[in-house]
């Protein structure tokens, strides 16, 4: 790495990670619960994926796999793309993003605002899988193309092992606690695998519960079924880095219930989060039902609500009897800084 790039990485690292751990107290079905959640919106481009983009690019520069002329090309459902766009712009690398054309307009415009080129991919062209194939073809044709490959690159997990997971362990230690379980909605699987492996170095019994939408159970079935509203998770396949055999069972939540939960966190606590965060919150309560309400269970609030203003996040839904959110009374938030 030349001196200029080395300096840039040192500065950039100050803008990524080191997020607060929130302890959100609530009453669920009459019982006191605490959900421990990393508030990931507070970084460079506003999501957990800044950690992954930073880590993969720093490793690539270290190995000499990229230089300033390299073009970052990624297939993504949104946050990874936005993170690579911001990190690419910071480092001076061009970025080209292939993404399904049904993702929210805020995501597309955000990427464009960082100067990136967007290639929307329709269902007829293959959606997520089509996007990945297109990036691979481009790499064959142009030697400047660098493929981070978030669905198959182990560095995606390592980024969370080295940062998110380590921070959670340290923040819980400040409370005199160790994680008994981690729950996280699976897009690539990087979050659950990286955090989970790290937390198991502190408590070898720590359970890993990957989460999926009830109405699109890709993890349980191995392929895509149905459609859902939790952008960022459950794409159309089980990613190579997602190791279900290291996990302790899949947790499923309803997507509308997840939206209502995300709305509740925003409206009642001022914690404005995206839909997958609502899903993860519900997932922690379900994990508590499985292993004990008093256990220390952690998750992530992957991004904030701003990317969802054109989606069902802003709709009002009828609250059905089977929804968990109707049985949750939010009490307040305590914060553990890094
Ligand atoms: N939530 C949101 C909002 C996301 O963008 C992502 C990443 N696609 C995830 C959850 C899932 O994270 P991971 O890819 O690490 O499984």
Which key phrases capture this entry?
338 residues, alpha/beta, Rossmann fold, 2 domains, seven-stranded mixed β-sheet, 39% helix, binds 4'-deoxy-4'-aminopyridoxal-5'-phosphate
Structural summary, described in words:
With 338 residues, the chain is of the alpha/beta class. The chain has two domains: 3-46 and 164-322, 3-Layer(aba) Sandwich (Rossmann fold), CATH 3.40.50.1100; 49-146, Rossmann fold, CATH 3.40.50. Helices cover 39% and strands 19% of the residues. The protein has ten helices and eleven strands. A seven-stranded mixed sheet has the order 9-8-7-10-2-1-11, sandwiched between helices. Helix 3 links the parallel strand 3 (71-75) and strand 4. Helix 2 (49-63) crosses helix 6 (155-174) and helix 9 crosses helix 10 (275-291). The two termini are 29 Å apart. The model has no long low-confidence stretch (mean pLDDT 95). 4'-deoxy-4'-aminopyridoxal-5'-phosphate is lined by residues 77-79, 185-191, 232-233, 274, 276, 302-303.
Describe what is shown at a glance:
This protein is 39% helix and 19% strand. It is an alpha/beta fold. A seven-stranded mixed beta sheet has the order 9-8-7-10-2-1-11, with helices on both faces.
Model regions low in confidence, pLDDT < 50 over at least 5 residues: none
Strand order across the largest sheet: 9-8-7-10-2-1-11
How widely separated are the two ends?
29 Å
CATH architecture call of the largest domain = 3-Layer(aba) Sandwich
Inertia-based shape: globular
Q: Provide the gyration radius in Å.
A: 19 Å
Q: What is the tally of beta strands?
A: 11
Count of distinct structural domains: 2
Structural class: alpha/beta
Q: Average pLDDT value? A: 95
- Total helices: the number is 10
Order of helices and strands: HEEHEHEHEHEHEHEHEHHEE
Bound molecules: 4'-deoxy-4'-aminopyridoxal-5'-phosphate
